[in-house]
Amino acid sequence: MSEPMVKAERVRKRFGRLEVLKGISLEVEPKEVTCLLGPSGSGKTTFLRCINHLEEINAGRLWVDGELVGYRQVGNKLHELHESDVARKRAEIGMVFQRFNLFPHMTAIENIIEAPVQVKGVRRRDAIDSARQLLKRVGLEDKTDEYPSRLSGGQQQRLAIARALAMDPKLMLFDEPTSALDPELVKEVLDVMRALAREGMTMIVVTHELGFARDVADTVVFMDEGAIVEQGKPAVVLESPREERTKRFLGLVQEH
Amino acid sequence: MTDPVSATPEITETEPPGEIEAVPVRHLGRWISAAVIFVFIVALARSVATNPRFQWDVVGHYLFTGPILRGLVTTLELTALAMAIGIVLGIVLALMRLSRSLLLSSVSWIYIWLLRGTPVLVQLLFWNFIAALYPSIDLGIPFGPSFVHLDANSLITPFVAATLALGLNEGAYMSEIIRAGIISVDEGQTDAAQALGMTRLKTMRRIVLPQAMRVIIPPTGNETISMLKTTSLVAFIALTDLLYSAQLIYARTYETIPLLIVASIWYLAVTSVLSISQYYIERYFGRGATREASLTLFQRIRLGIWPRHVDVTEEGQILDQAGARRSGGEHR
User: Fold this and answer.
1) Percent of chain B with pLDDT over 70
2) Which member of A45, A92, B133, B294 has the lowest number of beta carbons within 10 Å of its beta carbon?
3) Is the Cβ pair A84, B199 closer than 8 Å?
């Protein structure tokens, strides 16, 4: 059995007095797709942001690829990592946001090459070559020099995925990637994600797309009020959930 | 008021409706006010041109003389140096202010409080008389031996005092402008940059500041134009800038009004150049921010005067086409 790509052990997170994560324990194996479901405010997004240390956890332990996130353990003591070390680890994890967060002052291809050139020190010419391939992969080869403001929501999100892939990540985090999209644009983004899953990318996806979770996920995790309510194979959790809260949530989501 | 709408093509069932060529509404009030303003402007221009006390010949005589031009150069140097100091200092103070360190942010706050809270003229005089406070300046190890010994009187010339006073004062104002610009950038941009592995400094330099520029540029243009005129305060420390040079001449010749006009013409000329540069700098930093084509100043003016005869391509080029109806804003 290989080492899990992500391992969380009783992770807790507070914002002021509000406890948003109340002891999350979870393992994600390499090449697996894990979908996090749950009502808004259940802590899914916060947990996702903890994995690449955009949020600091208050208690528990979190590992990515066998290494502690944000800290170094010496004996029994945790030492905070220097900012540059945190940045280096983040560079290995791709993240896709609900609101795309593309760089508006850069064209599509500039968005993609920014991090490889600035963070990894890839030569600009090489970065452009691989960026063109990425644009082709997400079906945007004709939008190379467009600014994000001139792209549709679906195109923007596909560009954001390409931007994350340009860093050659070993893990991809998706934070409600289709929630800000018009219904007819959701499919083009999910198709790119499906292709990525088929290629064996390890993915953690916060989503409300039950169809995607059913087809693509290896594991579905249902969260509510900062805790994991149940998890398992999609067929089990989505078709015959054990917990009352899961049933109620799935009923509400499927109704419309 | 019922002109026949002759140009409207007949709409048949097979033909799609043609573009609307309606007769615009006539605004009687606008015509009357335009006439009143026109009469007023003509009367004013006539009085300015014919009143001999303006002494336009004297204005013309002094406009390009040596002392005036040398004064203009000093004014431009002071403005450029003070703004450069102000902008660099402003960035540092803004970053300090936004820092998580309480010490850094309070130092920045106190600096801004002190420099914004006292008149810039007072600060100018302070720097000019700094030698009274610190007759000599020593560089070396703090509380230890000193390596360089400088006489404050010879080091702080009026020009240095003016540059320091205006630049350090401007830093306080610029820092607030830059801070507002940084805050205006969506937090998601920082999230995205950091998720890609950028450090905070790189995120600031590559992602946040370029976007903050859109908010920073207009008030900075304002500050530069304001600085151009604030430099005239240096007359108080007998530095021969544009205004003081003019004053020195009229103190001798009593041609007060024409020399003030000479100075004003130069201030206006420089302000015009600065305003036009600002337009182009804004256009550069606005790239990607709007879906509309971005026009050059000349294109904008043409579009404003003859919107009906100008067509703009998506790349921002103007095509002349008689009867073309589309304006820049209608493009996707």
Assistant:
1) 84
2) B133
3) yes
